[in-house]
Amino acid sequence: MKELTALEAAHLIAAGQLTSETVVRSCLERIKALEASVQAWEHLDADEAIAQARLADRSNIRGPLHGVPLAIKDVIDTMDMPTAYGSRIYRGHRPASDATCVALARATGAIILGKTVTTEFGLGPSGKTRNPHNPAHTPGGSSSGSAAAVGCGMVPWAFGTQTWGSVIRPASFCGIVGYKPTYGKADVTGIKTLAGGLDTLGLLARSVADVGLLASVVTGGRIAAETLPQTPRIGFLDTSPLGSLDPATQNLLAETVRRLSQGGAQIHDVPSPASMASWPEILGLVYRWEMVQAFAWERLYRRDEFQPETRQAFERCERSATPKSYEVGLARANEARAGCASLFTDCDVLLVPAAVGEAPEGFESTGDARFNGVWSMLQLPCLTLPMGRGGAGLPIGLQLVGSRGEDARLLRAACFVEACLAGTRLTSKSTPPSIRHSP
User: Fold this and answer.
1) Does the annotation count 166 as an active-site position?
2) pLDDT tens digits, residue range 302-357?
3) Positive or negative, the Cα torsion across 181, 182, 183, 186?
4) Which of 76, 75, 77, 30 is CA-nearest to residue 49?
5) Active-site residue, from 20, 26, 73, 87
6) Any idea what DSSP says for residue 312?
7) Which listed residue (26, 87, 126, 142) is catalytic?
8) CATH class of this structure's domain 2-271+346-437
């Protein structure tokens, strides 16, 4: 048996050395074995997935994703599968068309395996999904099902979305690679947005090369498909104004900096900007108003059908969000976005925490997003990689942040970091392979 990344599977399928049906059946076997404990899926039709795979095996290669299964977060429209946005308000809803990202993936040959669990509208309380490394802990959110499914080998890659930290944080908690492109880099038509000025499509996979290939498809080639490692200049940013870290995370970051320096990276400390402490406040001003506006219909006609926590969140935002506060937030956000360019004067990427620590125990919360939301507000690309484990034995990731529009540079730097940390990548039995096949 051999472990394969999504990219390796795609290459073998294209070369005629592996069938799509073999890959899909391997994923379905993994789902059958683990779904009862992980609960990552909202909709799954095994017979349809196998039929898609057989058709792919009889067809000419359509593109770089040909024959490889892909999971879709349930806030992203699919014309042939229910899309409920994690809410009973839309139970059984069948969109008339695919979201842009889904259509682009299909056009290049991807097999849409199913829909993964999300919190309600990407906002509400933790859903049914459990952390694949310890089911007593949250997988993070709101891309919980996507991260957990990739994290336990049910599918090689998945789509998620991020408003605050809904890709980076669950990827960190589940021990995989998570990538949020620069705001606007990928079209979000057909995605149920939570806050239009913040939301981005997100990608989850088990390697940087995998997310690089998927990114090239969903951005229509605006990001190059091949991502080669490049020795980066890394700024180790002081994020103390955003709050403190779990000691294990702090130690892992320090050790990671040491290993990257030994690997040849140029690393220097970057002081926190004077305005950093105000970034979460700015984020809140923008987010609250945009969220209230985006859900005008649901608040007017279906308010009583929200989950209690979701309804309470809307009510808090309704009380505090005003046109004036939003205009102030936009002005301050634009100022912060312009000012953060200076952070990259002497570095290609910033190294920052992906989360406070490991995934918290229990399901009252999907975890603290303080180290994620500010980069969403700044509309910068960011990516998380697993860097080790904490005191409870659960994954902890690092986060790399790139300058606006420089996604290719971020991915090249991430490839370098991934290679440097190869000796410390997760090897626990709880981290199964993405795909298996017999040679």
Assistant:
1) yes
2) 999 999 999 999 999 999 999 999 999 999 999 999 999 999 999 999 999 999 99
3) negative
4) 30
5) 73
6) H
7) 142
8) alpha beta
